[in-house]
Design brief:
CATH topology: Double Stranded RNA Binding Domain
Shape: flat
Largest sheet: 3 strands, antiparallel
Radius of gyration: 12 Å
Structural class: alpha+beta
Number of helices: 1
Oligomer: single chain
Number of strands: 3
Distance between the termini: 8 Å
Number of domains: 1
CATH architecture: 2-Layer Sandwich
Length: 56
């Protein structure tokens, strides 16, 4: 998803089911990359829903 300020949020689930999130600036330069454990996947999805609602 692309935020109003041009930041791009991308997610990826690796083959064992770990969720990763990456942020890049409007020039496609990565500014953050991280992951959450399985028990936090639902919280990540809820946070992404809030970000989508409030910042896109």
């Amino acid at each position: 998803m692309r935020l109003r300020d041009g930041t791009v949020v991308r997610t990826w689930k690796n083959p064992v089911g770990v969720d990763h999130v990456f942020l890049s600036d409007r020039n496609h330069k990565m500014i953050y990359g991280g992951f959450v454990g399985w028990i936090h996947s639902q919280g990540l999805n809820q946070a992404l829903d809030c970000i989508r609602r409030d910042f896109t």
